[in-house]
Amino acid sequence: MPPGTRRAGQWTLAVTGSLPGPEWFAPRLLEWFAAAGRTGLPWQVERTPYRVWISEVMLQQTQVATVVPYFERFLDRFPDVRSLADAPLDLVLHEWSGLGYYARARNLHRAAEIVRDAHGGEFPRSFAAVVALPGIGASTAGAILALALDERHAILDGNVKRVLARWFAVEGSPGSTQTGKELWALSERVTPPDRAAAFTQAIMDLGATLCTRANPGCERCPVAAGCRARVAGRVLDYPSARPARARPQRDVVWLVLRREGAVLLEQRPPTGIWGGLWGFPEYSSRDLAEAALAQFNHGEHAVAPASVAATISHSFSHFDLGITPLIAVVQREDGRVMEGPAQTWYNLRAPARLGLAAPVETLLRALTDDTPAP
Questions:
Q1: Domain span at residue 325?
Q2: How deeply is 18 buried, as exposed, middle or buried, from its count of CB atoms within 10 A (0-12, 13-18, 19+)?
Q3: pLDDT score recorded for residue 1
Q4: In this predicted model, which residue has the larger pLDDT, 309 or 30?
Q5: Do 128 and 199 sit in the same domain of this protein?
Q6: Which of 23, 46, 56, 339 does the annotation list as catalytic?
Q7: To bridge 165 with a disulfide, which of 120, 170, 282, 292 should be the other Cys (CB 3.0-4.6 Å)?
Q8: Residue 268: which of 73, 89, 61, 74 has the closest Cα?
Q9: Is 260 in the active site?
């Protein structure tokens, strides 16, 4: 067993030979960060709790390069908690469109309302109050307070899990309860008593830029000399992979009703996949979509025969989605829309500011290109 490897829930760090111990980790990492750490990112320019909060939520499941332009636009639209809390959810989702994982945006909006109503519009400064807000877990709360206020809090995001799992050669999937507890204990152990903001940014930067999942830059790592996984020649074995599971496939049909430069959109339920976003009426089969179309075609409506467009593929973290658009042109209608959720005729040439999922935006762009200019 390599030095430092966990055995029966205990850390054998005393049996490390010449390998440096955890107390060596923070000073070397801070030295590296002072010389090579990332600075000048938009949320680093003015580190208020609000700005750091928005950035930390956006950075969940999303790379820095993708987040930067979204962060800048979002802060232009919502420069403080009150402007975010007072905004309609549709506008918040619109500004989030394309960033994915839309529950983050819904939680941001709800949390902003709580900060406005329960905290007088000032982002809370206590860990308990921050972690109680929707969408903020222990690691995100710790990162906000460490980065914005320089308070000592351990964190454990995906990058930090990978760094610690390799440095201490922690066996087991980080998603398991036991391994998660051990990684939290190690994060607490290596976090220094001061310079919290610099250390927090440094350990996140290390995981994002050098201690990457694939092709890690061990030869440039400032703490490589103490990395148990590197010494054992097993860097890519850590952290342990989650047990493989077959990805389920789900197929749906979108009913695309067109009318004089507009298409019919409806708002999805507030929870679940794409909760609160606007999209096309969705059905689990073509038969159900055609039945809905036939019902819409009664009365004063007149709809041309429907055609099937190319299937759109979209992947989520836990399943793959196949979308078949069923397109029909409304030739005459009585001003009513279909029965069901909130619906609107969406003008393709002068679009409203609505929250739209990425495949909906893709299809809308294709329909816009196919729509004659007025």
A1: 249-369
A2: exposed
A3: 36
A4: 30
A5: yes
A6: 56
A7: 170
A8: 89
A9: no
